[in-house]
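Example with several molecule types.
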Amino acid sequence: MIEMTDVTKRFKGVEAVKGMNFYLEKGEAVGLLGPNGAGKSTAISMLSSLVKPTTGEVRFKGEPINKQMQTFRRSIGVVPQEIALLPQLTAEENLLFFGQIYKLSGRALKKKAERLLALVGLTERRKDKVKTFSGGMKRRLNTAAALMHDPEFLLMDEPTVGVDPQSRRHLLDTVKDLQKSQGVTVLYTSHYMEEVEYLCDRLYVMDRGDVIASGSKGEIKGVLSQARTYELRLSEKREEIEQALQEDGRVEAVAEIDNGYRVTSTEPDFFMALLEIVTAAGADVRGIEANSPTLEDVFLHLTGRTLRD
Ligand SMILES: Nc1ncnc2c1ncn2[C@@H]1O[C@H](COP(=O)(O)OP(=O)(O)O)[C@@H](O)[C@H]1O
Ligand SMILES: [Mg+2]
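Resulting structure tokens for the full complex:
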């Protein structure tokens, strides 16, 4: 188990991570979700012992990681946000190189590289230099490199950014398979909620250095358990209509959309009441559509911004 207690990281003038508490239990797939600048990379760098916290502690199996650096580093595989490969070498040579760092050699090394090239779908390209690879292929190879020493924990920092859809699919399925059938514990960082939703059982939502929500997927969505969003389409948007919505005690949030408003409410069966409020304010209603909340809605609800802002 890896855990963080009250971990803060300050760079000159920036508090990138503020008093973060976190744990990763063996066998889990945990997501770290947040927009750019939330502090995800800083958190993952501290979790992987590459960056020292300003205050607070990272522990592995109950002991501070700096007291067992070698054991700890052998237990984790890190896929950093920036690709870390040797572009002049072939895919296979890269894996052999990373394997040697972990003291693998001979047949065992060769076999491991072969198996991982197959896992990430690069067997046919193994003799090609990495500099000829697409972004997606590099990401896949980077993931294979992180797995050469059979780590118990795989820590991935936004592995699908700038990746073509096919490689993205492949990476997601590879990670899912590693976790489900090979027992690898996964920490998956992303600003794509659909990836976290697909892969992870539990998640942390970060924004501006703070963990603003954590728990199982169900619990996180439970933040909005009763809440529903309604897409209200009107023939015309008007100030009085928006004001009537803002002023109604049952309305939690109002956002302007193309041809109307998006309204959030925790009130049961708010549909009819919503219709009454806006018609009383003189609206000509074209349609109302009720939606169940997504992780994106949770984030919007907690921060007032979208993940891509
Ligand atoms: N080495 C650094 N020096 C100064 N500021 C940094 C450094 N690394 C990150 N930051 C700042 O810390 C904040 C969080 O960054 P980061 O952890 O990279 O977020 P994310 O990975 O969620 O996009 C940002 O404001 C970023 O500019
Ligand atoms: Mg980052």
